[in-house]
Amino acid sequence: MLTVLNCLVNDHDFRYVGAAVVICVLGCLVSTRLFMSGREAARAKRAGFVLMAGVAIGMTIWTTHFLAMLGFMPNLEHGFDPGGTLLSLGFAVATSVAGFALALQAGRGPAVEVGGAVLGMGIALMHFIGMGAFEIAGRISYDPTLAIAGILFGTGFGALALNRLNRPITRFCRYGGAAALTLGIASMHFTAMGAVAITPDPRIVVPTQALSDSVLAVLVISVTGLVVALAAITYLADRQTSEDALTHYRHLATHDVMTGLPNRAAAREELSRRMKVGGGSLALIAIDLNRFKEINDVFGHAAGDAVLVDTAERLKACVLDGGFVARIGGDEFMAIKSYAVASEVEEFVARISQAFSAPARVGDTTFSTSASIGIASYPRDSQKIDDLINQADLAMYRSKASRDGKWCWYDADADEDARRRGQIAIALRSAIAADELRLVYQPQIAVKEATLIGFEALLRWESGELGTVSPAEFIPVAEQSGLIVAIGDWVLDQACREAARWPVEMSIAVNVSPIQMLRPGFVERLREVLLSHGLNPKRLEIEITETTLIENPGQALHVLRQIKAMGVRIAMDDFGTGYSSLSTMFSFPFDKIKIDRAFLLELDRRPNAASVIETVIELGHKLSIPVLAEGVETPTQADFLAARNCDEAQGYLFGRPLEKGAAGDLARTGLPRRAAPGPERLIA
Ligand code: C2E
Ligand code: CA
Ligand code: CA
Question: Cα(315)–Cα(270) distance, rounded to whole angstroms?
C-alpha cells in the first residue's frame, strides 16, 4: 500500500494525474450510459450500443493510462514504442467490447460478472502491453504481489461494475457501475505502477523511433477528444430521447388515443387558460352523440369506434379558427369558443352540429347520427369550471329532451329545476328500501254532525340526502320515472294496514296516481291488499285527479268500474282545477267530490269564488254525490261551508296530518264534543 502511495505521490506530476482522473470519470459515465441504452434498446440495436460502449471505455482506459504515464517522472531518458502503444489501445477496446457483449448477452445470468471480469482483465492487459511499449534507459522489474493485486483490483471492480449495471435495484445503480469502473481503472493502474521498480542501466539505449512525451501527448489529446466527443453525442442523444418521450407522454396524457382529440384533462386546462387570458366571453359547449348506444348494440363496438373516429375527423376541421374540441368520454365531447357576440357561438355550434349529423360511413353501412348540444357561458353563467361544465350538461340534457333537438343555452330556471328533479329521481330510488317514507293521516269530518269520519293518507319523505321533500315536488318526479308504481303500492299497503286497526266506521282515503291506477294488475293488487289486512272495501276511498280520466277515458272508466264493483269508493280530487270538471263529473261514477283548496283561499278575496263553491255543492246534491271542501283554515270558511250544507271538510282548522299513533288515538276517541255546533269550534 505504502509503495503504491509513494509511487503516486513522489513519482507523478499531479496535473497529469488530475487530468487522467477527470477523463476516466467522464469516459466511465459515457460508456456505462451507452451500455444501459443497449440494455433497454431493441435487440437489433444492441450491438451498436455495445460497440460504442466498448470503444468508449477502451479509449478511456488507454487515455487514463497514458495520461498518467505522461505524469510519471522516472528522471531517466524514456520514450514509447509506437507499435506497442497502439496495440495496447486495440487490446483495451477489444476486451472491453467483449466484456460488455458477454455481460449484455448474459441478461441476469452468472456470466454478467464474468463479462465484467473480462473487461477488468482488459484493463490489466492494456496496462502491461502499454508498459511493454515503455522504452527507458533502465531495467524494469515488477513486484509480483502488487502486480497480481492490481490485476485482481481490475477484474474485481470490473465484475462489480457490470453487476451493478445489469442487476440494478435503483436508478442510481448506473452511477455505482460507473464509479466501480473508475475505481477499477485507477486502482489497477496505480497499484501496478507501485509494483514497478526501475534499475538505471546506461547500456540500454532508447530507440530513436520511440515516441517522445510530446508526441504521445498529442496522441492522448486526440483520443481524449474522441472520448469527449462521444460524451457530447451521448448527452445530446439522451436529452433528445427524453424530450421526445416527454412530448410523447404529454400527448398521451392530454389526448384521447382513439380519436386523437384532446381529452377531458386537456379541455379543463384549455378552459382555465382561456379564463385567465380574460377579455370577452367563453362558451363551454357540451355535446352528446344521440343514439350512439344503438349503433354499438346493433353493429358492434368496432362500428361504434369507427363512427367516433369519423366524427372526430370532421370535428377537427371545425376548430381551425380558434375553437377547441375534446372527447371527454364515451360519446361525450366538449367544445370551447371565445366570443364577443353570441352569433359567433351559434355559428360555431352550427358547424359542430353539422359535423355530427353528416352521415358516417363504416364499411358498407352508413350511419346517420346527430348530437345534443348545450352551451354555458363564462362569465355570465358562472366563473367556476365545474359549475360551467354542469350547466352545459344540463342545457345539453334539455336539448336532448326537446322535440326539435336544437341546441340550448343554459337557462338557470329551466335547468336548475331539471337538476333538482334529477337529484330527486336518484334519491327516491332508494327511499323505500332506506325506510325514508312514511304516511301521515289528516282528519276528514262530517260538517253537520261535527264528527270525524276518517283520514286521508298523505305521504312524507325524509330523504337522507335532500332533507324533507314535499310530495307536491317528488310525486311528479316519481310519476315521470315510473317509481310511483312501487311507491303507490307501498302507500296502499301501509294505509290499509293502519286503517284496519281503527274502529270500523273510520274510512281511509288514499291518493292514487293515474300511472299506478292504469297499470295492468292494479285492481288485483287492490283486492289482495284489502284481503291481506282484512279491511272492508267500503272503508277505502281512492282519490284520483281529473287528468287520469281525461288522458285515457276508456281505460280509466273500465278500471273505475272494476274498483267500484269491489265496493271501494272513488273520490274526485282537486275538483275545479282541471279543464272539463263538469263533463268529467257527469261521465264517471264518483262517490265524492273534493273541492280544491284554491277555491276556499279565494273566498275572502273574490266574490264569485263563493258562488262557484255554492254551485258545486248544489250540483253534487242534485247528483247525490257528497262534496268535501279541502283546505279549511279559518272559522269563517267553516261557517260559510256549514251554511251552504257542504257535507264534509278537511283542513288545518280541523286537524293537520297526524302521525299514525296520534291518528289511531283520534280515530278511537273521536272529536272532542263541544256544546255549540259549528265546525269552527270543533278543534283548535
Ligand atoms: P292533495 O291530495 O290535494 O292533498 C292535500 C294537500 O293539502 C296535502 O298536502 C295537505 O297537507 C294539504 N292541506 C290539507 N289541509 C290544508 C290546509 O288547511 N291548508 C293548506 N294550505 N294545505 C292543506 P301534501 O301532503 O303536501 O300533499 C300534496 C299533494 O301530494 C297531495 O295533494 C297529493 O296530490 C300528493 N300526494 C300526497 N300523498 C300522496 C300519495 O300517497 N300518493 C299520491 N299519488 N299522491 C300523494
Ligand atoms: Ca288528495
Ligand atoms: Ca286535493
Answer: 17
